[in-house]
Amino acid sequence: MSDAYDIKSNLLSAFRSLMTPLVRILLRNGIAFREFADVVKEVYVTVCARDMVLPGRKMSLSRIAIMTGLTRKEVASIVNGESQRKTASDTNANRAARVLEAWHSCPEYLAPYGFPRDLMIEGGDDSGSFEELVRRFSGDMPTRAMLDELLRVDAVKLLEGGDYVRVLKRTYIPTDLTPEMVEIFSRAVRRYIETVDHNLSLQDPTRRRFDRMVYPDSGLREVDVPVFQLEVKDYLERVIAEIDAKSATYPVPEPSRGEAPVQVGVGLYFYREVTEDKRSLTELLGRTDEEDD
Known about the structure:
Elements: H1 3-28, H2 33-51, H3 61-68, H4 72-80, H5 92-105, E1 119-120, H6 130-137, H7 143-152, E2 156-158, E3 164-167, H8 179-200, H9 225-247, H10 281-285
Antiparallel strand pairs: 1-3, 2-3
Helix pairs in contact: 2-3, 3-4, 5-6
C-alpha cells in the first residue's frame, strides 16, 4: 500500500470524525444531505479555481472537473451561478462586535482610568455619544436597532431615566441560534482549521502558528468537571482580556497609506468530548433488507 494511499485514507478518516459534530448541527436544524452536498460542490469548485492554479497557466473548467471529480457541466453551472448566490456581508455580528470593541478601546469613549464610560444615547453633545459610536463603527445600522440587539444579549443596560447606556460586555455573544450565532460559529471553526492547515503545510516549526492543547491525561471525575470548567473560564477570561488590551496598543492600519488590514486573533475554548455510541449501523438499525415498521 502506497504512502499516498495511506495519507488519503487517514485524511478521510479524520474528516469523518471532524464532520460528525457538524452533521449533527445540520440535522438538528433541518438541513438535508442534498442541500449540504450542493454547498460542498460549490466549495470544491471555488477552492480549486482559486488555490490550485499552476504557475503561468490559467485555470479551466475542464481542469477543475478533473481535480474535483465533478462533471464539466456541474462546474460550469456553479461558476455561472456565482453572482446569484449570497456573498458574505457586513452582518449584525460584525457590526455589534466592532461597536463593543470601539467602546472599550477608543479614547473618546473611555473614562480617565481607561474604563468604558456611560454614553448618552442620542442628543446633547454628539461627540462620544452612543449614536455617534454606532454611526462610526456599525455602518448604516440604526442606533435603536443596535441598542435593542445589545440589550437582547445583555451586553449593555439602560441607566435610570433611559437617556444613558452602560456597556457590560466586551464581546458580542448571541444568546440563541440566530444568524449572528451561526456566523460566529462559522468564523471560529474556520479560523482554527485554517491554523491547523497552515501548520501542517510547513516543515519549519518556527514558522507555525501557536496551537496548543492542555488536558488531564487520565481525565476527571464527573463531579470535578464543573469545578474545573469554572476555574478555566475565570482564568481564560482574564487572559483573553489582557490579549485584547494588548492588541489595542497597535496602530490602526490606514488603507489610504497602502496599509491593508490583516485579520489576526486568538481563540480559547473549553472542550468536553462527546461519548458516542460505538455500535455498528447494523446493530443500531437491524437488518437493512427488511421493511421498516
